[in-house]
User: Fold these one by one.
Assistant:
Number 1:
Amino acid sequence: MAYEKELKQAIEASRLAGEKIIEIYQKDFDVHYKEDTSPVTSADIAANKVIINQLKIQFPKDGYLSEEMEDDQSRKTAERFWVIDPLDGTKEFVKRNGEFSVNIGLIDRGALVLGVVYLPVKDILYYAVKDQGAYCTRAGKTEQIHVSDRVGEYKLLISRSHPSLKTQQLIHSEKQSIQKIKEMGSSIKGCLIAQGDYDVYYNFGRSMKWDTCAVEIVVTEAGGIFRRLDGEPIDYMEDSKENDGFYILNHKDNGIDLESIKTK
């Protein structure tokens, strides 16, 4: 199997990071804020250290892009690089609602080839390798997952911690098509679409490459669609670490007309 070693090590790194996160989660911890006002805790830093140490031992020639370390530009010169969010959903971690994940993705010669999303509180693991399908492991059992076949009437996910006017406008304009709406934090939203529980998610705000990388391949290998708001694929090779919004769909016919969603 292609990327067998890489997948094994990414899964092990995600679980080790998850153990460290839970250890801190169960205690008192301090919350600090970055220049962009996003929160960071000792769990973010500790999980990042665990992941980087694990992967660098196994893959010393690879580059790295992580939320919790300075961009050393190694991603621009290495043939491959890892994209890491050691604690995706720090706001949810701070709220202690369990809706956070460890995200590890791999870019090989410009292509997204592997992704691991681990949910420490529930001990649920999602993973995918390019052209090999998407899988979920829970309670010691691994199953291949697929998006739902719902079209026309769908289940919508919205962000718990990043509400927006455009999201409310989407809900209003699509109310005849929406069967159910649920708030959720972090990359769990993409995983729930990948396994067929929900169908549509639009992010109209700021996101970073480490927010989308791992979950994107889980969604696409499960048969879903993951695109920027302009319909183009996310380019993980570009200089910018930011994305200008994105959407996740189970089926192209559930996509909305973005021109109808205007900020007044």
Number 2:
Amino acid sequence: MKIKKILAPTDLSELSRAGLRYALELGKSEGAEVLVYNVVGPSQEWLDKHDDFYTVDRLIENHKNILGRFLKLAVGDLLPQVSVRQEVGFGVSYKTIVEKAEEEKADLIVMSTHGSTGLSHALIGSVTEKVVRTASCPVLSIHPTEESTSAGVGAA
């Protein structure tokens, strides 16, 4: 099976860098396009303060800028070597990721096993676990190594 398109979700956390780097390395070796995808969702606090769609659009635009900066810091060395697209979605993370993979006809989803959820993982399960259970394409989950999270920018 030829891999042509890889979906690489990131929550912009240090721990998500390992999955992102792996996705770009794989994209480079396979000649595949990598769609780096960040999903933002409303917290109850955010919903209480904002009730119009214009604000959602601004939130997404803001996260596009944050995603671009994050990519330069996390995997800037690989960006010129891979076909990369960046997108930001809005919704429930795992559902939005699975929907995006289907919409894009992704051949593979590559994501870290750990992100910024921390203690909530023990209570509600990880986003990666839910993506693995519900995605229609294969999901490669990457466990962050100590080097990838504690070393400098661009570490793997």
Number 3:
Amino acid sequence: MNVLEGIIATTRLDVAERRRRTPVAELQRQVAERAATGDRRSFAGALRAPGLSVIAEHKRSSPSAGVIRTGSELAAVVSAYERAGAAALSILTEERNFGGTLDDLRAARAVALLPLLRKDFVVDPYQVYEAGAAGADAILLIVAALEPTALSELHALAGELELAALVEVHDAHELELAVNLGAELIGVNNRDLTTLRVDTERTFALRELIPAGPIVVAESGFSTPEQLARLAGAGIDAVLVGEALMRSPDVEAACRALTGVAV
């Protein structure tokens, strides 16, 4: 069993346990209640702004890096990202491997005005309702983690709940599935989720195969202004940065260095 398969297996167990504690009908009620308030922020709209947009990520740990940051309040981190000019926020909610929870998403919603991505391994419709109920504006759908039928169904459900879906690919075959799905947001993850190795050239190779229309997001391995300038030159719309920011002793300064927003 590779790393991705192991995470998916434990995710299904965790979802089953949460479903026992909170029925999907309760989540649907919360989603409807949120919809009635008009509490929506456009994740795609934020990334369509001119220039390269930075999606700043809150991530405590990961299987590849171990513990990344301890002792800092989520509210302080996401507020720093917002001040530093991030276009959107990515909040890790997977607990066993990344140290996140849905409470992190709720906490970020309470203090930040930016659109929020629920970053997790979404494999069940229950998780889409969870995301909507907890304040997400977008979810991540990893093509490598889903059969085509499940990918299509989860993508459609996200649309029904007015959630954007960042469809993540790793190779040309997965990219073809994402394009055929009609994905508005396509993320190219440079990290091989079976081995955790990173190859940042993957973004540039796959960018050439993506037709006009979808918003293209580069993920994993980017941390310097020089790298971001190259992404912008290649026609990438946004970059998701987590570990490099979370490891910095001054996350606001680190984020400003990438966004170019002055103090």
Number 4:
Amino acid sequence: MIRQTLEKKAALIEKRLDELLGEYCCKGKLCDAMSYSLMAGGKRLRPALCLITAGLFNAENEALDFACCLEMIHTYSLIHDDLPAMDDDTLRRGKPTSHVVYGEGMAILAGDGLLNLAFEVMSDLTANADGDYTARYAKVMSVIAKASGVRGMIAGQAADLEFEGKGNSEEILSYIHDKKTAEMIKASVLCGAMIGGADDVQTERLEQYGKSIGLVFQIIDDILDVSGVEQDLGKSTGKDEAAGKQTFVSLYGIKKSKELAQKETQKAVDALGIFGMDADNLKQLAVYLLSRDR
């Protein structure tokens, strides 16, 4: 059931992403490069989380463009991650990476363009909002900026590079993956909650949920890099070990990593208790992330 829900959300998101590119981008090679990576498919997890959470408060329509902005930012980070100066990867979402197709310079600009476009869209939404939504949208934009910036995703990426090949450390591992992966997943949940007008208790529970599933996502990602099939994943495998990266598998092994993922999944499900059956989709999504194979 959750797979069907995710497929429906992905279709909605992809339709709106295509519309936003058409509204904001000038035709040409830059727009082509942006579209190539943005419309290449993928799990659309972050925007789906935003929409499903907003749906708890009947605010999915209001959250749609913000959800799309989350996907733009995520895609920008993937384009830059794949560059030769970063992870030097040639496969993403089952297709050649942006720099392979468009060259490094255009790939960098495509990533820059998607990041800037996300904030342009959010700024326009905020400027044109009415009533309570003006303040809500401004707070959402701030949350996304922090989660994706130098105290969030970028900080995690920097640490990931800095500590390659320097042995394993629980403290460093926790920092890298909390910042690099979990922050944006948690922010995606929080954005849906904020747009919907969640109260303090609801926001706190959803924040815990987002943090836990963010860690689960990264743990399973680390496991799949060792045990997954490249064709199924749509990206290269075995690169983390080859680069000497800090991963849950390199520090704890596969068995203990799975146990940690199971504990965090239970924490995520427990955090949603106050919502009752209304949060069934979020609960199912947490379990799905634990058992995913791609």
